[in-house]
Model the fold of this input.
Amino acid sequence: KPQLQRKKKLEVHTKILEALMAVIKARDLPTFFEAEDAAMSGNANKPQLLELVSSNSAGSIADQLRLLAVYSLSPSAADGSATELEEALRATHAESPQPVKAELERGIEGIKHMRQIQSFQTPVVPNDAPVPGSGGGAGKGREMLSGFLANARSQATGLLAAAADKVGLTKTDDNYVTRVVNNLCEFKPGSEDETFLYLDPKVKGDGSGAAPGQGAKGRVPFREVLVFMIGGGSYMEYQKIQSTFVDSGQQVTYGCTELMTAEAFLKQLGKLGS
Done:
């Protein structure tokens, strides 16, 4: 009987994975991922981007808007070329139903709002460039779904596992939140550990909230960490933090004002920009 129950669970999980793979292939998400990854690295393939936003069959309108948003905020768009992609996307859906056009315009307004915010901040740097205050370059780890796929490979069919590898589900980049948490926990010099507010009633200071010196008495490694985002959080941040600190011996809890999907985030930006 236990074996029968395990078999039923395996079948359920396999069917879920098969359904996910079908959606991933139908929306051509691996191609969008590679295009977005190249754009954020400053190596955008402009013809490929135009092809993706000019197609009615590649991805959903949410995928195309996400691609436009990523490119707009990337170093590749420093020359203002994002406007060309924006016009190409509008032309692609010129004959689409009104609800689709409305969703498109909301998304574009949201992207414009992000550009406006970015214009008041430090420009986005490539993933492989050093991030000020991070104590090193952006990480290259792509293990967000590695644990999930490890189980999938052991349970699903060889064909399904091979398909999972093919679409690149094991790929994910390090992110800013993970790097900051790691720097603070490790007391890394030249990082956010020297600039973030530090409050500890057990450690004497000057009352400014500045972190004590690296060798200050009383500073011990953190074992329990609470990461809270004031504002919208994301599943990727949560998963990345969990996978990064799983073997660290630290208990890391992630929280946020609101946990949002990418589509919900774009909708909120659209409301702010309109």
Observations:
- Confidence is low (pLDDT under 50) at residues 123-164, 166-172.
- DSSP finds eleven helices and four strands in the chain.
- Residues 2-26 form the longest helix (25 residues).
- The radius of gyration is 22 Å.
